[in-house]
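Re: weekly structure request thread

Next one in the queue (391 aa):
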Amino acid sequence: MGELKYFFSYARKDSEFVLKLAKELRDVGVNLWLDQLDILGGQRWDREVEEALKTSRGMIAVLSPESVASNNVMNEVSYALEEGRLVVPILLHPCDKPSRLRRLQHIDFTAGYDTGFSQLLRALGIDQPSQPRTQPLKVFSQLFTGFGIRPPSQPREPEVTEAAGERPIEAPLSERPPIRTEPAESESLVIEEFEPPYPKTPTVPKGESRRAKKTRFPPEQPPPLTKNQISTILPEHVVVEEPAGQAVAEPVREKPSEVRHLESSSGFIFFSYARKDKEFALKLAKNLKDRGVNLWVDEWNLPLGADYDREIDKALDDCRTLLIILSTNSLESLEVRGELLTALDSKKKIVPVLYEGVRVPRQLRVIHYIDFTGSDPDDDINLEKLIVNLK
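Done, posted below.
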């Protein structure tokens, strides 16, 4: 088998689109492997797929609700990412992208096939054919229409006589009828009006400026909330009565015991870390667990034999907060970055822990972090600060 370039990963339900795309990519010189085109009769399907994955340089992953739900597709994508292959995601139908692919820019085919195909060629580094120029007459006609004028019709070609290839001989200038510059008495000059494609600008009488016509009104002020409305909107607050009779919402002050322990009913916290920081991360997680923090840690919460990617995605969807360990290793980890982006997209609360002196990612610079650089995960002061931030 020769050297392969791009492996096609997709769900069977998307076969019609994939076959069309694969054939057109081959027509422009893309070297790719597709099971329906390259596995011969009598060959072992699983062996051929595995061999193609090993020898491919990159992967084109077609994303749809069916492919995201397919174990085969997710396994192929995981293998390509773990081996450091180039993965080009194609969004065929709107779906929830797996966390591992959220950091990768996808090619959007939902806006149209031609647009997506051009973007895919650019991503693969393929020269695209030059686009045909717009016909001058069409542009000229559009210009006339924009000013509300009927565009001149396209000049007709002289009719061909019965003899093939012969055209009528034009009369000399002296024998041609004079050109009429005015309409005959029996004719009336008719000028057709056309409605321009844009709204007409209203006329302003002389002496008045356009600005004088604009009147600004102050925005309407909403009526003050009643005590019942405030209680409905802010159930966790207490409504007190001021001397003037106006209802004011005042936050409830927490008891010291409520700060130290987080109840499991409030939702769990997803623990995101790099494998190379496992020793520090698991010590910190254990200390938080001992203090009543409801953490979800893959090392502890993944059941045996479970699909790793699906369990991670489900935990990210169900959690209320993401606790992320920031270090050189985590910033280089595609897994951690994907989990962070998933949490940001879902508008989850994010609590960063700075384990090493690294440049904080742009998305987290406005969020307060707990600094564990140079300190032990058993540091009581930092642990108390972290617990308060996780509340």
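The mean pLDDT is 75. The CA atoms of residues 352 and 369 lie 5 Å apart.
Next request, please.
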